[in-house]
Amino acid sequence: MPKLIKNAQIVDDPRSVVKLAEDESAGTIALPGTPALLPLAVWLARRDEIIKSGVPHGVWLDANEGPEAIAGDLDHLAVIGVNFPKFTDGRSYSTARLLRERYRFKGEIRAVGDVLQDQLYFMKRCGIDAYALREDKDFAAALASLDDFSESYQAAADQPQPLFRRRSV
Asked: Taking the domains of the chain in order of start, what are their residue ranges?
């Protein structure tokens, strides 16, 4: 079973990430019987069917997809994945912050795709709280990297007050 960093622990990842093959469509793909992260297109095409199934599926947003498309459905989603297709593509950082700050999403935001240890601290600052690292990465070292810095100057999703507001006089 694949691994995941969640709640500052390395755990088994019970969810698969479903991707559409070139010959598949959102309306006809077979829905898994176990919890999975489904592409946004599948959620949009089959939302009522997915909710009615009772299986706690989540949705993953590609880097070019914003959270606006699911803003009205957040109560039905326990997990939202944000995809990092390449480590140089930072659009999903913005998606995570929007989910936490604008839409007040309280569920799990999971980084999927090309997730590297160097990025975890900054992902955490944006509100991401679960990390599906690539299989070839050292999960123990990545977990330790979440605490690379003891303090941050700027406000972010994980600390809404900047340092100068938090300092005691």
From this structure: 3-166
Range list of β-strands (E), 106-166? 108-113, 130-131
Calculate what percentage of the chain has a pLDDT beyond 90: 74
Q: Is the pLDDT of residue 5 over 80?
A: yes
CA distance linking residue 120 with residue 145, whole number of Å = 7
Q: Put the strands of the sheet holding 79-84 in their side by side order.
A: 9-12, 3-6, 130-131, 108-113, 79-84, 58-61, 36-39, 16-17
Pick the CATH number of 3-166 from 2.60.120.20, 3.40.50.2300, 3.20.20.70, 3.40.50.720: 3.20.20.70
CA 43 – CA 64 distance, rounded (Å): 16
Tell me the C-alpha distance between 163 and 27, whole Å. 48
| Residue labelled with tokens 């140089």 | 88
Burial of 51 (0-12, 13-18, 19+ CB in 10 A): middle
pLDDT tens-place string over residues 56-83: 999 999 999 999 999 999 999 999 999 9
pLDDT digits (tens, 9 = 90+) for 110-154: 999 999 999 999 999 999 999 999 888 899 999 999 888 888 889
Distance CA 42, CA 133 (A): 24
Tokens found for residue 31: 């829905």
